[in-house]
Amino acid sequence: MMASFFDQFSSPSYLGVPLIAIAIALPWILYPTPTSRWVNNRLITLQGWFINRFTNQLLLPLNVGGHKWAMLLASLMIFLITINMLGLLPYTFTPTTQLSLNMGFAVPLWLATVIIGMRNQPTVALGHLLPEGTPIPLIPVLIIIETISLFIRPLALGVRLTANLTAGHLLIQLIATAVFVLLPMMPTVAILTATVLFLLTLLEIAVAMIQAYVFVLLLSLYLQENV
Prior knowledge:
By secondary structure, the chain is mainly alpha-helical. The chain has one domain (1-226). The chain has eight helices and two strands. Strands 1-2 form a two-stranded antiparallel ribbon. The relative contact order is 0.13. The mean pLDDT is 84.
């Protein structure tokens, strides 16, 4: 029973070929391609409005140098939201429950922000390792602590996204299993449990969108420190 609960997080394969590549490429196929016409359909208009609102909100605290990241951050946001939402459908696989994939997004992007800060303003970037007004005896300890916290950032990004989605999927499967077990014996309790399952599913939809937003928001905050 315990093994079957965690089988949903194993990467599916067909004839020995991993299907995670198809799961990653699928979101880009679902979105319509904008046209050069003045009048578009409602879906493209809604898509453009969402991207514009999100980009304006995300890049508001950044200076002009950080605006070069607008397309990258907006694309990452849409990609993560789509993958997380598709993973809530029955008989689907969620690639963002794999820590390796999330770390593959987090580490290069975090490292890029650090390299930009060290190249453009090395004094300010290194100054984040030592808060102003620190007593002299505490300087070595604080430098070590701030350095460790700096290198933990990409790990926190990847683990946060993986843990939230994994916990939600497990909880949904556990409650759904309880509904099927209780239905023949205690129908009233099963109906109440199914109501809880429905509310939890709505919560997981919100979590799928919020976690994608938090992932991109933290990257923008790391970028803000280095531009």
